[in-house]
Amino acid sequence: MVNEELFIEETIATTEPPPPVPELSPEELKRQRITIAVIIFVVFLFVLATLVSIYYLSLPTTDTENIRDIFIIFLSLEFLVLGLTMMILIVQLSTLINLLQNEIKPIIDSTNETANTLRGTAMFISENLTEPVITLNEYLSALRQFFITLGIFRR
């Protein structure tokens, strides 16, 4: 019970409060509110246009050929925008590939070379320092045991 209380007290004492949320400047706050208002307005216009379209299409006197033609024009414009978006995406992808090949790959190669150098250094130290010291300790231990067996040294 006492250990649990100490653990709880240590936990409470060592936990830090979360970092404070940064305050937005008045400009950022205004820009954020304007962005939210524009998004709400666009959604409202979309819903309103959908409702008006449904109303006019349900009237018996509506000329559906004109609506069909307008819809086809709208779809062609949408495909044009999608095509432009795809071209921008391809350009961005090629920029990313260029970044990976020309900037990040040399960093990775340098890191790999450093790791290989470190591996070689560790092997060198192992062969030229650690193994001789271990061998010396083996011989000294055998010599000590020999002298203990002869009775020259005591444990």
For the structure shown, list the relevant keywords.
single chain, mainly alpha, 3 helices, 2 domains
Describe it:
The chain folds into 2 domains: 26-60; 82-155. Helices cover 86% and strands 0% of the residues. The chain has helices spanning 2-14, 26-58, 64-150. The protein is elongated.
* Beta-strand residue fraction: under 5%
End-to-end Cα distance: 47 Å
Give the mean pLDDT: 83
Largest sheet: none
Succession of helices and strands: HHH
Poorly predicted regions are none
Radius of gyration: 39 Å
Helix/strand structural class: mainly alpha
Shape: elongated
Domains (count): 2
Number of strands: 0
Helix content: over 70%
Described by its quaternary structure, the protein is single chain
Total helical elements: 3
What's the layout of helices and strands?
Blueprint: H1 2-14, H2 26-58, H3 64-150
Summarize the structure.
This protein is 86% helix and 0% strand. With 155 residues, it is an all-alpha fold.
